[in-house]
Specification:
alpha+beta, 23% helix, 18% strand, globular
């Protein structure tokens, strides 16, 4: 599928990096990631200090098919619910897909970056003065009370919809680092939706990362 912002990048004739060494990024999260440069149908690892326009997430054996799930929910949110989400792709090693080792399927998740914009990017937890370890301590009530200083009513309503969507799909990892804002001039707006998965199927409880 062609995607705005990626040129004529398609999954049909994708060329992955020839460099066999994996360059993991500093970006936090459960999934191991690399920052990459996508230029039409070619992908390469970003060099140190180089601007990268996309993030690559590798498959995780501890959370089988988590990349497939994230790609599915983000595309559903973007195409069906009209939520603001970055274009994403899922690349699957089809040779492994056809083999008897189905559970070893290599799936690679690629998403265009939204944190590389003309504005300043802030995770809500950091914006409100919380360190990374406290990302689960913010309640929804506290977030909405404090975010009124940054977001207008329309953006707050969008945040409520994002939160409700995470509740409906069983995403217990919807903590305060997984919601962000972008500052442009003196104005703040909610960043596109990201890190949207179902955690219940992996045995996690039914609580959300942000309690009511």
């Amino acid at each position: 599928r062609k995607s705005k912002g990626f040129g004529s990048f398609t999954t049909k004739n994708i060329v992955l990096p020839k460099d066999k060494k994996i360059y993991l990024s500093y970006l936090s999260g459960q999934q191991p990631k690399s920052t990459i440069v996508v230029n039409y149908n070619k992908i390469r690892f970003a060099k140190l200090g180089e601007y990268s326009n996309a993030i690559l997430k590798y498959s995780n054996k501890d959370f089988y098919l988590i990349n497939v799930i994230e790609n599915m929910f983000l595309n559903f949110a973007r195409l069906e619910l009209k939520f603001e989400c970055m274009p994403t792709f899922l690349l699957i090693d089809r040779q492994l897909r056809k083999s008897e080792f189905l559970r070893d399927t290599v799936d690679i998740f690629i998403s265009k970056r939204f944190d590389k914009t003309d504005g300043d990017y802030f995770e809500i937890s950091a914006l409100l003065g919380y360190v990374s370890e406290d990302k689960y301590k913010l309640s929804l009530e506290e977030i909405f009370e404090k975010m009124q200083d940054y977001l207008d009513k329309k953006e707050l309503e969008k945040l409520a919809k994002y939160y409700y969507f995470n509740f409906l799909i069983g995403n217990g990892d919807s903590h305060a680092k997984n919601f962000s804002v972008i500052k442009q001039g003196n104005n703040y707006k909610l960043a596109p939706l990201y890190d949207v998965v179902n955690t219940h199927i992996y045995g996690f409880n039914y609580s959300l990362g942000i309690p009511l």
